[in-house]
Amino acid sequence: MASYLPVVEWKGNVAKWIVDCLEDHGVPMFRVSHYGGDIAVTGVCWGGLNRVTSVKFVDVPKEDLDTIVNTTGEWHIFLKKYGSDELKHKVKEALVVGEGENKRVIELPKAPWEV
Length: 115
Hints:
alpha+beta
């Protein structure tokens, strides 16, 4: 299958791509497409400042494909699953809202294996 997008390995890159998108003020989104027998996962940074390119992820585990198909906001789950402590900390800094006594950190939802 021909791709005009950069092709990257899922496990080693998905968490960093998510953080890059969030830092670009975008929303990380994933799309699964079927081309004959091939399955393609495209990562799109929606609504950002266009500094993060869309990518085609390869070698995506079946359980992650199922999450993409059946879940909304799945980037939270993938960040928890694949992100280093440093990447998770960057996201927490980006999720601080409010000022003064109203300042708080938006909590990421629990991943299915943490419930």
